[in-house]
Specification:
Blueprint: E1 4-7, E2 10-13, E3 18-24, E4 34-39, E5 46-51, E6 58-60, E7 68-73, E8 78-83, E9 92-98, E10 108-113
Length: 114
């Protein structure tokens, strides 16, 4: 069973930056396709970025492409999300997970103020 612990969220002004981290337990992290998801108030949770086990292939949702960067450190069982030029519409709870998703962590809240 994988446990996922997200951190790094907070309150930031529009145009600012945050870097999220997600530490995964278990021995399968380095061979797992990983992603960042987010759920805004009143909306469904959706995938916004993914990264293959060796980091060779990365995909982004159109809404974050060019502003967010996903990366991973397999030695630390950690996946990151660097978020730049944040917008108010980026306000959401952010989660990391495998693809396909397994048990969800608690997520980390990101709030972008205008």
């Amino acid at each position: 069973q994988v446990q996922l612990v997200e951190s790094g969220g907070g309150l930031v002004q529009a145009g600012g930056s945050l870097k999220l981290s997600c530490v995964a337990s278990g021995r399968t992290f380095s061979s797992s396709l990983m992603g960042w998801y987010r759920q805004a108030p009143g909306k469904e949770r959706g995938l916004i970025a993914s990264i293959t086990p060796n980091g060779g292939t990365i995909t982004y949702a159109k809404s974050v492409k060019g502003r967010f960067t996903i990366s991973r450190d397999n030695a630390k069982n950690t996946v990151y999300l660097q978020m730049n030029r944040l917008k108010t519409e980026d306000t959401a709870i952010y989660y990391c997970n495998k693809l396909p998703a397994v048990d969800w962590g608690q997520g980390t809240q990101v709030t972008v103020s205008s």
